[in-house]
Structure formats: structure tokens, C-alpha cells
Design brief:
Blueprint (H helix, E strand, L loop, with lengths): L6 H10 L11 H12 L3 E6 L8 E5 H17 L7 E5 L4 H13 L1 E4 L6 H11 L3 E5 L7 H9 L7 E5 L7 H10 L10 E4 H6 L15 E7 L7 E6 H14 L6 E3 L7 H14 L2 E5 L9 H12 L3 E4 L1 H8 L12 E4 L6 H11 L3 E6 L6 E4 L13 E2 L4 E5 L13 E6 L19 E2 L8 E10 L5 E6 L4 E3 L2 E3 L1 H9 L4 E11 L3 E10 L7 H11 L9 E4 L13 H20 L3 E9 L3 E8 L5 H9 L4 E4 L1
Parallel strand pairs: 1-11, 3-4, 3-5, 5-6, 6-7, 10-11, 10-12, 12-13, 13-14, 25-26, 28-29
Antiparallel strand pairs: 1-2, 8-9, 14-15, 15-16, 17-18, 18-20, 19-20, 20-21, 22-23, 24-25, 27-28
Bound molecules: adenosine monophosphate (AMP).
EC number: 6.2.1.-
Protein name: Fatty-acyl-CoA synthase
InterPro entries: AMP-bd_C, AMP-bd_C_sf, AMP-binding_CS, AMP-dep_synth/lig_dom, ANL_N_sf
């Protein structure tokens, strides 16, 4: 078997095993079933509710997981879920999430929803996908997931059943009793029937009570777009999901591995890549706390958790690496072989600091929801290039296309990264057909094969892919396009800077002006003036030098650690308008900036007692900002 060490190996592996492989499952149900047959009594998925290194944990063996997945699938079918019907999960990480994810795919289509979203956004996704069944949390002290889901369901008549998971069951018995007393009461104003997860599952058999899915079809809806605006729903097929799992089992993991994965399963990195690869290879998946890296005490206990489970792979994202690096390695982590990082750019400086602090290599990879996930990764057992997202994985073709001429770029030239792979569902990436227009470059046959990622990048002479920017996220200054990545990488190279988010702030003359929000490494106290001087010295294009830099205690981030730019845009709109009001003596202020599904970002303006409305309207006429009275 060829090892994945170089670009030539990637091609050789693909030649050795044409896609689809003959000896690999074709649906996730068959993948889970195969894991039970091959690794039955071995540890499959492990979850602990709290972060302590000796805290109570529950492990499902692969055989137990398979039985519960069959029960969940039977339950969903009994509630009317057919192959094209949707079961949504509004769940944080827990073993029930894994069971629901695979069970829903066996019966129909799973739609994992981020439980951190607001009720209105959850309702939007439930409506758009037409979900019939929702699996969510029962009320818990200190968590509002149940309440938000209930509020969302008020406006979603398509949901007929809600199945509740009680995380209190993971507590020791005395804490469970206390949690029972402290459980918040909830007003339920929706019509859906509410069921209890373990009771409903117990009534079902551990063999599939219906014909297992036999052909390729859509198996999941993952929402994305959190960094650029309102979530979009992308659909993935069994074949794409199995492809990701196959890559992992083929080039990375085996049943002796243990993956420490504090990443959410409502995102493709956790669900499709990590859980999929674990199930294909028999490696154990460990999930510390429902909120993963955001869970209380997870960073402080992290190295001890690695020791507890003898983890071999650490699955991570740049923001988590930055936090981990600030804690001493206070446990025996000799079991660890490698850290795998993805989902956002890993600053080169951070890469170096982490390798020095933890004595561990980081293998950076690149994927996106629209490609089912995996696109490229540095070879785990071959040379890793810092700053590069690695080599396209076997059966994935990366083409760099000049956005203007639509010609393929030569080696080293920057263009839009376009991807063809078994994970790309040509012509059908998003559930909303209109969003698929202009999303592909055709292959030689004219089929819409190469997905336009909206990322800019280049391939080097060894075939390594470098992401250099984002065409989907440009700052447009007076008709001139500025790539925020240029500003971000320049500022991130400053030793006191941990993370940067560059956006366009509204401007009456230029439309947008570049501005940057910065999070410092802990203990640093560099001034904005010093950062501005650094920006001027290191950003070559004058127009791209930010007009404004602000240091925030922490940048807003998504659940997988990407800087959440919509929140920065809201800050910038409020700041720019309030300044304009002050300058013109307008007695008004921005009370909130909110995202509206149809209108985009809307500024809500509060009137002061001395407001002259006509003057305010004159000021607002200079901007292209949508606004309303608060
Ligand atoms: P999502 O599907 O929401 O996870 O977003 C996918 C996007 O995340 C990609 O299109 C990239 O813009 C970005 N991304 C993923 N991995 C990396 C990486 N290693 N470096 C830089 N950007 C990344």
C-alpha cells in the first residue's frame, strides 16, 4: 500500500484504489455496522460531561453504538421519517448526538444545528429544511438550548415530534437529584409531541426494522456561512461522507488510535471528518464536555485529559492552539503523535510557538462544508510546510483558476481554489437551487465538477496548497478590491497579536474602508499606534493599510474558532454611525445592529429628545446602510 507522503503518492493511492472502492461501505449505516463487526468490543465513542481528568465518562463500544443507532433509526421511521425527510439535532456534543446523527442518516437526512444559534436562526433552518423531527436537550440548569428550541418551534409547524435528551444522566446520582430540583420550568407553545430519548429508544429493536439504505442519496444538511452572513444549508451525500471516512482510514488512523476531539459535531470537521474517520478506522473518539473547547475547565485540564485517555491525535483549531499554548504541559502526553488543525488559517508564528511549547508537530488541513469537508492536508508522515494547508488528498483535484480570464493558473500563481472530488455534489451543493448558480467551473465534459471555494490560493512546485485570501470576503474601497487576508496576515505576524479580523467599515466616500480588530496574546499590551506603524511597514498595498485598528479583549469566534466577521461588521457600523451623528450634532445613537434574512445588516437607531429628523436623514443618505428606528 502506497503511503501518503508526497503529491505523487496522492495520485498513486488514487490509482491503486479507484473511487468508489469495492471493499468499503456505501452508506453510513453500513459503516457503523462494519465497525461493530470488526471492532465490536473495542471502545468507540467516549463522552464526559465535565472536564475533570477523573470525571465520570461514558464509553459506547462499537457494538453498543451500532445497536443504539439501529434503535434511533427505527424510532425515526416510526415517527414518519422516510429517505427524504429531515431529522434535525439541536444538540451539543454527547453520545446521544452521535447516535442521533447516524440514526437519522439511516432513516432519512440529518440536519445538525448549532445549539448556540439564536431561536430565530434555528427556526429559519428548521423551516428551510422542512424538518419533521427535532432531537434536542431537556431543560438543564445553566443551559438555554431547550428554551431556544421551544421558542423556535413556535413558528415551525412542519415539526411533529421533539425528542429530549437529558444531559443530567451523565452526572453522579446525587448531583442528578439536585439538577432535577433546579431544572428550569419551560412554557411550551408549540404543537409538536414531546418524547423522552431513552424511553423512546428502549421501545425499539436493535436490528433495522426497515430495508437499510441501498443507494447513494443525500444524507445530511449542514449549515455554513457563519463567517460571512446568515447560514446557508449545504447538502452532502453518503458517497461524500464515506469518502472523507475512507481518506482517514487509508492515510491516517487505525483502531489503536485515540482522537481527542473537543470540536462540535454540528460542523463537518467534527462529524464528517473526525467521527467518520473514527468509525471507518475503529479509532476511539473522545469528546470532553458538551461544549468541547468552550467547556468549563477544558483548557486547564487538557493535558491531563490527554494522559487519561492516552490520546494519540489531538484535533484542534488555531484559536484552541493559542489558548493551549498559554498553559504549561502538566501531564504525561507521550502518547500524542500529532495535532491536526483546520477550519481557519494557522498563523506561522503560532505554529512555531506551539511546536516549541508542546513538543508536538501540527498537521494543518483544509476543508469546507460545501465539499463535504476534506480537501487537503499536510502528510502526517511526510514533510509538513508551515503556512500551507498541505497536499490535495487522494481523489481530490485542486485547480487554481484566474477569476478574470477563467484560465488555469500556473504553479505559484494566485487564483481561486476550485475543487473536484467525491465530496463535491456538482450542481446541487446548496439546498436552495438559486445559490448553486455560478458556483462551479465545468470539467472537460461540461459537467459542473469544480466547486469554486471562494478561497484564493496557489500550488507550489511540490503540489502543496497555500491559501492566500478570500474572494468571498473582499473589502471594496472605492471600487478597488482589498483582500482582508493581506491585512490579517501582516498584523498576525506582530509578536503581540494572537488573532485579527479585517473587514470593510462603511464610509460615505469610498463605500468601504479597511479596518482591523485585534486580539492580543495574553499579557501583551502593545498600543494601537504601534500596531498601525507595523501595518504601514508591512502591508505593501497602501490602500489596504487599515484606517482604523481596535484591540478587543477577545475577538468574536464561531464554534470552530473562526473569527466571526458579522459581529465585527456590527461593531464597525455602530461606531461609524455614532461618530457621524456626534460630528453633525445629531441627537441619536445606534441601539443595535441586527442581521435580517431579507435586508442583511440593519442598524436600529434610537432618537434623543433634541433630534432633528431631517438632519439625521441627511447623514444617513451619505451611507448605504439599511436602518430603522429602534
Ligand atoms: P466552513 O465550511 O464553514 O468550515 O468554512 C470553510 C472555509 O473555512 C474555507 O472555505 C476556508 O475559507 C476556511 N478554512 C478552512 N480551513 C482553513 C485553513 N486551514 N486555513 C485557512 N482557511 C481555512
Amino acid at each position: 500500500m502506497v503511503q501518503f507522503i508526497s503529491a505523487a503518492d496522492s495520485v498513486a493511492i488514487a490509482a491503486e484504489t479507484p473511487w468508489p472502492p469495492t471493499d468499503f461501505p456505501t452508506t453510513t449505516w453500513h459503516l457503523v455496522d462494519r465497525a461493530a463487526t470488526r471492532f465490536g468490543a473495542r471502545r468507540g465513542v467516549t463522552f464526559q460531561l465535565t472536564s475533570g481528568p477523573r470525571a465520570r465518562a461514558e464509553t459506547l463500544t462499537w457494538a453498543q453504538l451500532r445497536d443504539q443507532v439501529a434503535q434511533a433509526a427505527n424510532l425515526f421511521r416510526s415517527l414518519g421519517i422516510g429517505e427524504t425527510d429531515v431529522v434535525a439535532t439541536v444538540l451539543p456534543n454527547c453520545n446521544e448526538m452521535v447516535v442521533s446523527y447516524f440514526g437519522a442518516q439511516a432513516a432519512g437526512i440529518v440536519c445538525p444545528i448549532n445549539p448556540l444559534l439564536e431561536a430565530e436562526q434555528i427556526a429559519g433552518i428548521l423551516r428551510e429544511t422542512g424538518a419533521k423531527v427535532v432531537v434536542t436537550l431537556k431543560t438543564m440548569p445553566g443551559a438555554d438550548v431547550a428554551q431556544k428550541t421551544a421558542a423556535a418551534l413556535r413558528d415551525v409547524p412542519n415539526v411533529t415530534h421533539v425528542i429530549e435528551v437529558d444531559l443530567a444522566r451523565y452526572l453522579p446520582w446525587f448531583k442528578r437529584i439536585i439538577a432535577g430540583f433546579m431544572r428550569p420550568k419551560m412554557d411550551v407553545a408549540h404543537q409538536a409531541q414531546v418524547l423522552d430519548f431513552p424511553t423512546a429508544l428502549a421501545g425499539q429493536g436493535t436490528q433495522l426494522a426497515f430495508d437499510a439504505p441501498a443507494t447513494d442519496r443525500v444524507a445530511s444538511y449542514f449549515h455554513t456561512g457563519g463567517t460571512t452572513g446568515l447560514p446557508k444549508v449545504a447538502q452532502q451525500r453518503f458517497s461524500g461522507i464515506l469518502y472523507n471516512a475512507w481518506v482517514g482510514a487509508h492515510i491516517l488512523f487505525n483502531e489503536r488510535d485515540v482522537m481527542m476531539c473537543p470540536l462540535p459535531l454540528f460542523h463537518v470537521f467534527g462529524a464528517v471528518v473526525v467521527l467518520g474517520m473514527a468509525t471507518a478506522s475503529g479509532a476511539e473518539l473522545v469528546m470532553p464536555t458538551p461544549a468541547g473547547y468552550r467547556g468549563k475547565g477544558v483548557f486547564d485540564n487538557f493535558w491531563k485529559l490527554i494522559e487519561r485517555y492516552r490520546a494519540t491525535f489531538l484535533i484542534t483549531v488555531p484559536t484552541a492552539i493559542s489558548a493551549l499554548m498559554q498553559r504549561p504541559v502538566n501531564a504525561d502526553i507521550s502518547s500524542l503523535q500529532l495535532a491536526i488543525s483546520g477550519s481557519a488559517a494557522l498563523p506561522v508564528e503560532l505554529y512555531r510557538r506551539f511546536e516549541a511549547a508542546a513538543g508536538l508537530s501540527i498537521c494543518e488541513g483544509y476543508g469546507m462544508t460545501e465539499a463535504t469537508c476534506l480537501i487537503a492536508v499536510n502528510p502526517p508522515r511526510g514533510p509538513k510546510k508551515s503556512g500551507s494547508v498541505g497536499l490535495p488528498v487522494p481523489h481530490t483535484q485542486v485547480k487554481i483558476v484566474d477569476p478574470v480570464t477563467q484560465m488555469q493558473c500556473v504553479t505559484g500563481e494566485v487564483g481561486e481554489i476550485c475543487v473536484a472530488s467525491p465530496g463535491v455534489y456538482g450542481g446541487h451543493t446548496y439546498t436552495e437551487a438559486a445559490k448553486n448558480a455560478d458556483l462551479y467551473y465545468p470539467d472537460r465534459t461540461g459537467a459542473p465538477a469544480f466547486l469554486r471555494t471562494g478561497d484564493l490560493g496557489k500550488l507550489d512546485e511540490d503540489g502543496y496548497l497555500f491559501i492566500t485570501g478570500r474572494s468571498k470576503d473582499l473589502i471594496i474601497r472605492g471600487g478597488h478590491n482589498i483582500d482582508p487576508a493581506e491585512i490579517e496576515s501582516a498584523l498576525a505576524a506582530h509578536p503581540d497579536v494572537a488573532f485579527v479580523g479585517a473587514i470593510g467599515q462603511p464610509d460615505p466616500h469610498a463605500g468601504e474602508l479597511p479596518c482591523a480588530y485585534v486580539e492580543l496574546v495574553s499579557g501583551a499590551d502593545v498600543t494601537v499606534e504601534a500596531l498601525m506603524a507595523h501595518a504601514k511597514a508591512t502591508i505593501h498595498e497602501r490602500a489596504a493599510v487599515p484606517k482604523y485598528i481596535e484591540v478587543l479583549p477577545e475577538l468574536p469566534k464561531t464554534a470552530v474558532g473562526k473569527v466571526f466577521k458579522p459581529a465585527l461588521r456590527k461593531l464597525a457600523i455602530a461606531r461609524v454611525l455614532n461618530r457621524a451623528f456626534a460630528a453633525e450634532g445629531v441627537d441619536a445613537s445606534v441601539v443595535a445592529v441586527e442581521e435580517d434574512r431579507k435586508r442583511g445588516l440593519v442598524a436600529f437607531i434610537g432618537k434623543g429628545p433634541a433630534l432633528k429628523e431631517a438632519v439625521l436623514r441627511d447623514v444617513m443618505a451619505k451611507f448605504t446602510i439599511t436602518w430603522d428606528w429602534a
